[in-house]
Structures are given as structure tokens and as C-alpha cells.
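Problem statement: downstream parser choked on a complex file, so we are re-checking the raw output for the iron/sulfur cluster run. The parser issue turned out to be on our end (a line-ending mismatch), but while we're here, posting the original submission so the record is complete.
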Amino acid sequence: MGALERKIEILGDASKFDVCASMASPRTVSSENRIGNPDKIGICHAFAPDGRCISLFKVLMTNHCIYDCKYCVNNSNNAKNKVMFEPVELARAFMGLYIRNYVEGLFLSSGVWRSATDTAEKMIEALDLIRNKYHFRGYIHVKILPGTSKSHIKQIMKIADRVSLNVELPSSCRLSEVSSMKNFNTDIIRCQKFIYHYIKEGLLPAGQTTQFIVGTTGESDHEIVERLHWEYQNLDLRRGYFSAFTPIKGTPLESKKIPEIYHRKRENFLYRVDWLYRRYNYEIKNIYSIMDEKGMIPLNIDPKVSLALKDDIFPIDVNEASFDELLRVPGIGEVSSKRIINLRRVNKKIENYKDLQRLGVVLKRAKSFITVNGQRQTSLKEFYR
Ligand code: SF4
């Protein structure tokens, strides 16, 4: 294996902890040489602004890092296999993959080598080559590094289609549990405010996103949702991603034991409440209301069902409910709500459960919250999974 291939392998693999818009499935790999081995990281999938699913070369500029985040394989105390692309190497490697049709875009992140400024300059040099020497006009997503200066953020935003900065932990207090060096306010929030400032100036209409690692410290769901809400309100955040903490060999947290199933489910439920908040217009107080006394979302009941059980609008008549009311019914999503409303526009009524099924409603979940022609069916055990 040549030196460049080795860098691609190491830096592609080290990038797998950054959540992209859509990750590969976590299939178990039975053989090293099988086709479609998702363990060989380096390519991920994301949705472009026009909705197309595209493949991205997902890679780090370097896995050197001056910070000491205990959960991260790149942390300063881990001296193993440290490498860095020269800007021209990265540009050529990416263009080689693009020209061969292996990838359609780039997802570039990095550890912080020497300083955020030095690393950002290397990244900008590589991006500049890709855009201006090789004339690549496709999708580029760049992770802004903690502590990056305002002027470097601006330069990156002029080149990239999307930028994001990982918050990782919900507060200064939680961050200090895993890093003695990173400063929550100056390294993270301040940089997100710079991004917000340039978005408002029209630099990147696609907006910014962020990522939380779930379960690294003792943080509650309430703390995560509260931070997320703050970011939506104050930084015009497009959306948050959640990544369940995974103990990584070679890090101080490698022996931290967390049941995988619990973590994945927690990650999944955070995605669900985020969706309910962003797309179904639930107020933040509604989301908090379903959490237990420890500020956790119960994992034995779907959050939408929890919300519906507290909502006094139910049962609703499917032939009279508004679009927003229909959205709140478990088992009815945006598509089926639209179909129900469209039916009314042509003066048709829903006569029975079969009509609802034809419109895509998951009847088992919905029927306790609705009436159809005055009929309702309730069975509490169906709420719990
Ligand atoms: S700053 Fe990022 S790359 Fe560096 S140790 Fe922390 S999480 Fe890892």
C-alpha cells in the first residue's frame, strides 16, 4: 500500500465518528474481503439540497489533535498512527475518486493540528485547489473546527455548500467532564455565532447543523434538548444529529460500559422528539412534559404516543380535523395527513378504517385517537411497545 493510500485509509476510518446526513447501515461484517464492507469507511451518503442522495468522500485533513477529548480516538494523548494530508494530496485523492465516479462530493473534517488557524489554512488550501484548480462544482460539506477564527470561517463558507460545528456536549459543565482544554463558549458557541452571522449575510443559505454525542457523560435528554432548542432559537440551526457514545480503543473512555441497545434507542428517540419539534410544531414545553423526573425520554413508549396521551384534543374526527391536528395522531404522518385533507377538497369522506389504511395511516397506532363516522376503538396496551 502506498503512502497516500495509507493516509486515505487512516483518515477515512478516523472520520467515521462524524455523523453525516445519512450513515451506512451498521451491518455485521463476516469477512474482510466481502463486497460492500461498511467497516471500510471513507464513503458516506448524504442528501443534497435538491433532495438527491449522493455519495461523499468522508475524510479528515489530519488525525493529529491538540485537544484531549476523552471519547475521541484523535485526542492528543493517543500518539498512534498520526498522519496528515498535504492539501494537494487531498485535492488529488478526492478528484481521483470523483473522476472515477466513486463519489459525488466531499465531507471534510479534521483534528486540530498545531492550532485551529493552521489547520483551517491547510483545509482552505485543499478546498481552493478542488474548487479553483480542478473546477469541482459539486457538493462540499466542511466541519468547522473548534476555535476557528471569524475570517477563516468566512473563507470556508465561501467555498463550501454546508458547514457544521459539533457541539458534542450540551453545556460548558458537561464538556469540562471530558476535556480540560476545549472551551464551550469561546471554542464552540462563539464559532457557531460567526457561522450564523455569515449565513444572515447570505453566504450559505443551507444553514448550519450540529452533532451531539449521547451518553458520554451523565447528561440528560432534557439538557440535550434544551441546548438544541437554544440553537434553533438563536443560531437558526437547520437540524441536530445525535450519535450514541461508543467506547473506542485507545481512548480514556475505552472501558466505559454502556448497553448498546439502550444507547441506540436513546439516540433514535432523540431523533424522534427533534422531528416532532421541528416538523410537527410541538412546543418545547410539550417535549419536556413527556420526560421523566431525571429528564429522560422514556424508552418504553413512542414519544409521539406519549404526547398524544397528554393532549386533550383527542379523539378527533378524521373528517373534520385540521392538518396540524391530524399530524399529532400517532400513525398519521405528513404524507397521510395531506392525503386526508386532499380527499376533502374533492368532497369525499373517509367512511371506514380501510379508507384510512389506503391513505397510508398505521391503523394500529392511530385508531385509539380518532373517530371515523363516530366510531372509536381503544386499547391501552397498543400504546406500549
Ligand atoms: S477537538 Fe475534535 S478531533 Fe480533537 S480530540 Fe476533540 S473531538 Fe477529537
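For whoever reads this later: Residues 21-30, 35-39 have pLDDT under 50 and may be disordered.
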